[in-house]
Fold each of these.
Amino acid sequence: MSPEPIFRVALRGEEILTSPRWNKGTAFTMTERKAFGLTGRLPYRVNSLDEQCDRAYDQLEGRDAPLRKNTFLQSMRDQNWVLYYSLISRHLKELIPIIYTPTEADAISNYSHLFRRSEGMYLTFPSQDSMEEDFLEQTKGREIDLIVCSDAEAILGIGDQGVGGIGISTAKSAIYTLLAGMDPSKTLSVTLDVGTNNENLLDDRLYVGWPHHRVRGEEYDKFIDKFVQLVRKHHPHSLLHFEDFGVGNAKRLLDLYRDKHAVFKDDVQGTGAVTLACVMSAVGVTKTKLTDQRFVIYEVVKKVRPTVLIGCSTQPGAFTEEIVREMAKHCERPIILPLSNPSRLHEVTPQQANDWTQGKALIATGSPFPACKMPNGKDYIIAECNNALIYPGLGFGAMLAQSRTLTDTMIIAGARRLAQLAPALQDPDDALLPDFGDAPTVNFEVAVAVAEQAIEEGSAGVDWKKEDVEAKVREKHCEWAALGNRRIREGFS
Ligand SMILES: O=C([O-])CC(=O)C(=O)O
Ligand SMILES: [Mg+2]
């Protein structure tokens, strides 16, 4: 890839400044300004991307509350993609919690009140007759690699959020770009608005979604099927990512479509895979076997004597002192994973789990937490067992390999690679999973493992040799990052 990729763009003047894909703001060169009619539309000085990022970071710092930072970044995403992604990439650990969990949960629950500008695609039950037309309005002629959709029945741990679910679709696709290098012009974020059973939203006169109770049963299935068939017809090679559907539908929809299209259900497969990687890493520390573990998702600790406690209850405090102490009586290094999101819904805080087990617990959480103090005074780093450590790589690997399905064996290959990168395998008192600051490298490794597995098992659509996979993935992984240096010329690309 040349360090200065060149694109042909058929927009001019105001149109190019209001296109987030092409807008470069003060980074337009003098040649570009002349060619696109921008000389009188911009102040004189040409800034580098570094300078733009510095300015934007200062502006961001001026906003104290995380939600204000979130809305600032949302506006920036509407204005200038390269700046938005470059800024976040430079402050990954600080800004991912702003555009993703936990802050995005607040943005979603306040969606109708914070609403300024539409984002992504809204497909609404009463407008289903025009679904294909609406879909093509936004996608015709576009190459689309990834579609993230949500019906918002079970957003993070905050439940039914109706039309606000668009926020999780756009956040998840931004993470694909940031952590795996997916080109955002080839992604589509969709909300499937089938109503909401959240009475607060229904009672809110400013609610911008369809003010109706959730459609269920056959009508719901038909609506979802209509959408899936459109995806299959117009973008047969895309990856279709389902996010935050209710438990009653999530697994059912996955089973229904997984043999027909490359579908991925993040909260089943992504969360499952990152948790598996985390447990593999912990089992590496305890020098036991995965098959020797006793898993408990909620309670019954005395009876079962679990070695692994997994929290996905969204009940804060569910892992009580009694439960945790009881567990620690029966195992040397209890593996405790309070995974509910966002942070305020965790079943136990890492510091409590550490204190109640005299520093023996191996801990990972679903949202970011600060390190806790071990009894010996050392810091214990809390791994973030969030599916973002793996799903961008799973999806990117499957997409690059043009895999017709995302098989369990591909997912396990990704989980195994992630577990191999765990710091705890070098030092048993270190984090169970890699640091989020390393998430781009980690997802790159996951993508390679997934694509290699797809090739090995014959589900890939490309005819790469296994030994070439790493180089191929690297080339694509870097492509989007190189856009910070892009030049544009007049014409059609
Ligand atoms: O989005 C996240 O942070 C993880 C996730 O999928 C969920 O909690 O539903
Ligand atoms: Mg989710």
Amino acid sequence: MKFTKMHGCGNDYIYLNGFEIDVADPSELAIRMSNRNFGVGSDGIVLILPSEKADFRMRMFNADGSEAEMCGNAIRCVGKYVYDKKMTDQTNITIDTLAGVKILDMTVEDGQVTYAKVDMGEPILKAEDIPVVSALEPVVGEVVEALGTAYAFTCVSMGNPHAITFVDDTDHFPLEEVGPIIEVHEKFPRKVNAEFVQVVDQETLKMRVWERGSGETLACGTGACATLVAGVLNEKVGRKATVKLLGGDLIIEWDEASNHVFMSGPAVTVFEGEWMLG
Ligand SMILES: N[C@@H](CCC[C@H](N)C(=O)O)C(=O)O
């Protein structure tokens, strides 16, 4: 089975062409392929499929086999995959996800996509739709305790759930200890992606993420979008900012007129391979 390894800011997934192959159990395959010792090694897998609603459809599975509604870094790579492999000759395409149809505007250099801007749609701020158990609306300052410390979270869904808290220093934050506790906290009925964010200035945020189903990753596109929204709601940042992640930078804008969030960032192909284990 042929696969392509790609990343967006170091958030790496294995891309499978669902036009050519039929994957019977993607959850189980995600667990095996993502394993960094016994598999290819990745944060999860992504299936590229035909769609009746859009130009293409994507399904993404975290490293633990759980399916996520949306993935910001993967959707840029799906755009690159279909353009570079000549499955489309358009640089403006639509991709169907469990979080709705998203629109991509791709930059091509020397015949290949290097960068894409994605209309990520409107952020979801209603507690029951995120979902988070909270009486707040929007959910700004929901206190969740982990290891004896109370964290004030702002909760935002970009189709998938995020909980964002602001810290003084992301570099020295004990993410491996706090992240797993927040991910499965009872206030988050569908679990949560947890973002720990340092404000650098009005136009720059630094973020580390503990992803639902994958643990710490080098970047999270939906997480960067949710973080910018949280930054605006907490009056810490303007409506357009650079979100600096361990694996690179994303530019995020929350447009006031449309209420849509736009994410811009790179998409990179690392290698192609053949999976021999069935
Ligand atoms: N890394 C992704 C998000 C992947 C899904 C997430 N772990 C979830 O379960 O919601 C991104 O770039 O958005």
Amino acid sequence: MMVGKLPLGEKILLTGATGQVGGELSKTLRLVGDVVAPERVTMNLANSDSIRETIRAIRPRWIVNPAAYTAVDKAESEPQLAYAINADAVKTIGEEAHALGAGVIHFSTDYVFDGSGNEPYTEIDTVGPVSVYGASKLAGEKALAESGAGHMIFRTSWVYGATGKNFLLTILKLARERETLKIVADQHGAPTWSRDLARMTAQVIQDCEAAARDKGLKAVLSDSSGIYHAAGSGETTWFGFAAEAVQLQHESTPGARLATVEAIQTAQYPTSAKRPLNSRLNCSKLMERFGWTMMDWRYSLREVLSEL
Ligand SMILES: NC(=O)C1=CN([C@@H]2O[C@H](COP(=O)(O)OP(=O)(O)OC[C@H]3O[C@@H](n4cnc5c(N)ncnc54)[C@H](OP(=O)(O)O)[C@@H]3O)[C@@H](O)[C@H]2O)C=CC1
Ligand SMILES: Cc1cn([C@H]2C[C@H](O)[C@@H](COP(=O)(O)OP(=O)(O)O[C@H]3O[C@@H](C)C(=O)[C@@H](O)[C@H]3O)O2)c(=O)[nH]c1=O
């Protein structure tokens, strides 16, 4: 893999820097170029004028967009807001990037699939979201692809880290408060470390910049545009993830009282939004194009727990 920084004076516009992935990106991308991360009051993704004005003022070479409406259950009762942020805003970002010749890096989700079958999904497999969140993210993918902007869409899954709102931190909190945790064991997928995703993104931009020295950014983007699956290596269930996390906590803090973790079926844990039973993502394309293998979730879980 080649390494290249942005040309002097060129900028990366980063959205969602207060989020899980955005927080990691704001640290990692600084090693690649000047990062401008407008606050929500300046660039509100629910307001297309504010998106256009901000992009036109900054004139970035790259727009990295981890910002999203991520409240999966709440989206069922707030579809308009979910679509505004996850689809309409992405369309606007794509249009503005196209006008500038900027590259867009966008993040999407395993929830674009219906979860049928037992094999890891590839980028060309049929989508069929079963939730408003998943459908709104799919609409964002399509809008970006149609905008004409050079883009890479990283579909990831089950993101977690030492900070932010995520399943791991919820489970560790509940494990300290309760006797028993009942966790679904029939939804299969892979936890992804937010920092690994950020490092991969930085590496992809560097790779593109290195190639752009010879070919120009437009040609590089046109060669690389598309969807890439980028989930942690290995696979488990939400139950497997929770059980491993609680077990590791036990080992590192012997004597601490922690809940026992019980496996249940999805039907025993009713939620407003349906989740896919199969969330496995095949990440070979990312490896083939950019030489990046995402970290095994068991390894990254240990890294994250050591930070807590
Ligand atoms: N979390 C996960 O498990 C997964 C996430 N993804 C995708 O990865 C990406 C990153 O997710 P993650 O970091 O976990 O998400 P978070 O929920 O942690 O962060 C979302 C970010 O979006 C910002 N945001 C929300 N609404 C607006 C708005 N109207 N205007 C401006 N900013 C806004 C939030 O700002 P504020 O702090 O002000 O609310 C926050 O910074 C998303 O695209 C998500 O769909 C994909 C698969 C799994
Ligand atoms: C807290 C808890 C959850 N669960 C179940 C509910 C659900 O099926 C599963 C995951 O729970 P959560 O609601 O925390 O996760 P969820 O919000 O569905 O996570 C998703 O977020 C979006 C943004 C994505 O893009 C997805 O990749 C995925 O990470 O675990 C239990 O079975 N027991 C519990 O005690």
Amino acid sequence: MAELLRVTALSAGYGDLRVIRDLSLSLARAEALAVLGRNGVGKTTLVESLVGLTRRFAGTVALDGRDISARPPEARVRAGIGWVPQSRGIFRSLTVRQNLTATARPGPWTLDRVHEMFPRLAERGGHMGDQLSGGEQQMLAIGRAMMLNPSVLLLDEPTEGLAPVIVDRLFAALGQLRQEGVALIVVEQHARGVLDLTDRAVILDRGRIVHEAPSAELRHDTAALEAHLGVASAVLPRGAAAP
Ligand SMILES: Nc1ncnc2c1ncn2[C@@H]1O[C@H](COP(=O)(O)OP(=O)(O)OP(=O)(O)O)[C@@H](O)[C@H]1O
């Protein structure tokens, strides 16, 4: 598969603090990558470094073979980096429809396509951003990112705080994006759902990749899950007891 994103020996952080340390990874076109790790290991910082929101000490980020390391966030978005922040970043004083169209860029993802994926957003089109439930906000954040027609979508804990039925719906929508050729990088605490969705997973610890495996393999690797995440039971099928 053709390479889309390449991160090479990246060290990045905030002020004088190096959070990401000498980290390298690559992502193929339409590939989905899970980024796992305990709290505070640098998952958000990695995503923010791809978006261009951190201080870069060393290393490069390339998209489609072009070095975007020195580009500001707006230019990275124009180059094809889509971002759904952990805070969701909904414009609260705009309607749902205005949220979707305010920053849209031309491409296959239009308002109709987003409404098809999330019919709830069509129903709520005239509501203000601050009148939405958590699940609706997350759908809106994803829909708005898609309206920028990215080649890779970065999602930072998209299911945080949502009810299981909404989590299932969101993962189904993300699965649909994948099928349609959008590459995904998903930071998640719900290891089970994200390992079903993704092709490959990396586990971070103290700003470095400490484990990397195909998602289908990691899902059953209770030793690795316990060692790096302490969550082996969380990725077993529902209803199954941990060994
Ligand atoms: N804006 C910031 N300024 C300074 N330090 C920060 C900032 N954001 C994060 N950090 C520090 O960077 C380190 C990594 O945080 P980060 O949020 O990237 O981890 P995480 O793996 O995403 O954690 P969580 O799962 O809790 O979201 C932490 O020590 C944190 O205190």
